[in-house]
Specification:
Helix content is 57%, strand content 7%. It is mainly alpha-helical. A two-stranded antiparallel sheet has the order 1-2.
């Protein structure tokens, strides 16, 4: 049995976003237990030219919703990138998951061969839907999820690989 484009995308996005939500819950507990200013984590970044934690969550959200949109031809919701608190980030994750749950397998039909054109560094890049998903959308999404994890781990939040994987 072969897997569909829907099967190799939507469940992966939803699971990783749920895991990301769990990481944020542990971050909040860390802030409360250590009496820290939440901004210590929210504005943290691995390097000065990288997005802070808030930006990593926003980019992960965008990567998932835009991939689903491009592959299903469904209009994605618009989020303003104004989140500055843990509850706001949790709300964004929840809204992203809610959108992903509305995208049906039928809407993905034919998406493996569909031409996807995106701008990368100001240049148009063309993919088949399958190449887009496997070589850009999923790696990009997981990069931002992983970077959010790395920021929290670097800042002392007690999380590990099983938290990232959702076990």
């Amino acid at each position: 049995m072969s897997l569909t484009m829907h099967q190799i995308s939507i469940p992966v996005f939803i699971r990783a976003l749920n895991n990301l939500s769990g990481l944020l819950n542990k971050a909040v507990a860390h802030v409360e237990e250590n009496k820290l200013d939440p901004d210590t984590l929210l504005t943290a970044r691995l390097f000065e030219d990288m997005y802070p934690l808030t930006g990593q969550i926003q980019r992960a959200s965008d990567a998932a919703k835009f991939a689903a949109s491009r592959l299903s031809a469904v209009q994605p919701p618009s989020f303003a990138d104004e989140e500055t608190t843990f509850p706001q980030l949790q709300e964004r994750i929840a809204k992203t998951i809610a959108f992903l749950e509305t995208v049906t397998p039928e809407q993905f039909e034919g998406s493996a061969e569909r031409e996807i054109i995106i701008k990368l560094r100001g240049n148009e890049t063309k993919f088949t839907g399958q190449a887009y998903l496997l070589t850009f959308a999923l790696p990009n999404f997981l990069f931002h999820v992983t970077t959010a994890y790395d920021i929290l781990r670097h800042k002392g939040v007690k999380i590990g690989k099983m938290d990232y994987l959702g076990f």
